[in-house]
């Protein structure tokens, strides 16, 4: 049975998995999960992922969430040895490190500033901005110290997808990160060298830009954590 990917159209973790599947030319069925309708908050969805987060991979009944784990799984299972997830211990460790860095710090700090205030009742604060700069500064240092063309090697790896999609949300809100020259170059090189993969990010970026200009009404959602913006109707 062909793999199914439950994905949200503008969610960076979902985009990264789609890019890896596309790059590896692995067939899959894309199941769109409508975040605005709370489709990920149902009891049925919780059977796929008790964390009620998107994406989820369904590989013939094997359900896997956490986009990093999905990226690692599809490479290991379907294309072992592919350079997208290298097997040499040190290179692989750097890929794993960058995936962890993205999850714990880069995406965490950036999305709290870029995405959360678009969809929920959060403000962009000075502290939030400081955290974005901390994340950018660290990533810039990693790129500088390793001196590779991509985030973990001289070629594209699964770590790049996650870091690209986090960075894309900065572009979506017109955040100028050009002073981080290594990041800026790496990001723009990805766009020119992998236009068909960038298109996946770009379409999502346009959606995010639309929502930034037209804040969505999520007042019908009974979200367990995020404060819902009050809309005067
Ligand atoms: N650590 C997870 C995070 C996934 C995630 O945050 N997904 C968002 C959409 S982009 C989500 O499902 N959020 C659930 C919610 O806010 O209700 C991963 O990397 O897969």
Automatic annotation (TrEMBL):
Q: Which Gene3D superfamilies match?
A: 1.20.1050.10, Glutaredoxin
- What molecular function terms (GO) are annotated for this protein? glutathione transferase activity; zinc ion binding
User: Which domain of life, per UniProt?
Assistant: Eukaryota
- Position of the signal peptide: none
UniProt keyword Zinc-finger, yes or no: yes
GO process annotations (BP) = glutathione metabolic process
Sorted alphabetically, which InterPro entries does this protein's record hold?
Glutathione-S-Trfase_C-like (IPR010987), Glutathione-S-Trfase_C_sf (IPR036282), Glutathione_S-Trfase (IPR040079), Glutathione_S-Trfase_N (IPR004045), GST_C (IPR004046), Thioredoxin-like_sf (IPR036249)
* Residues annotated as domain GST C-terminal: 88-216
Which UniProt keywords are present, listed alphabetically? Metal-binding, Zinc, Zinc-finger
All copies of the GST N-terminal domain together span 1-82
Tell me its family: Belongs to the GST superfamily.
Q: What PANTHER family does this protein map onto?
A: GLUTATHIONE S TRANSFERASE D10, ISOFORM A-RELATED, GST-CONTAINING FLYWCH ZINC-FINGER PROTEIN
Put simply, this protein is called GST-containing FLYWCH zinc-finger protein
């Amino acid at each position: 049975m062909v793999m199914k990917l439950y994905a949200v159209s503008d969610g960076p973790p979902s985009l990264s998995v789609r890019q890896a599947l596309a790059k590896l030319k692995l067939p899959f069925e894309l199941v769109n999960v409508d975040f605005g309708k709370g489709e990920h908050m149902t009891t049925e969805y919780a059977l796929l992922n008790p964390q009620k987060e998107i994406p989820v991979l369904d590989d013939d009944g094997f359900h896997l969430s956490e986009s990093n784990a999905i990226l690692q799984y599809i490479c290991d299972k379907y294309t072992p040895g592919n350079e997208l997830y290298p097997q040499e211990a040190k290179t692989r460790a750097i890929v794993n490190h960058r995936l962890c860095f993205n999850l714990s710090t880069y995406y965490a700090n950036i999305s709290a500033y870029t995405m959360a205030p678009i969809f929920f009742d959060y403000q962009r604060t000075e502290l939030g901005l400081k955290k974005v700069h901390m994340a950018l500064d660290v990533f810039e240092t990693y790129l500088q110290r390793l001196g590779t063309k991509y985030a973990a090697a001289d070629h594209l790896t699964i770590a790049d997808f996650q870091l690209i999609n986090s960075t894309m949300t900065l572009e979506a809100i017109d955040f100028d990160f050009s002073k981080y020259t290594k990041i800026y170059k790496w990001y723009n090189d990805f766009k020119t060298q992998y236009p068909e993969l960038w298109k996946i990010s770009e379409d999502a970026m346009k959606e995010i830009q639309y929502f930034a200009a037209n804040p969505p009404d999520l007042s019908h959602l009974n979200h367990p954590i995020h404060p819902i913006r009050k809309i005067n109707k």
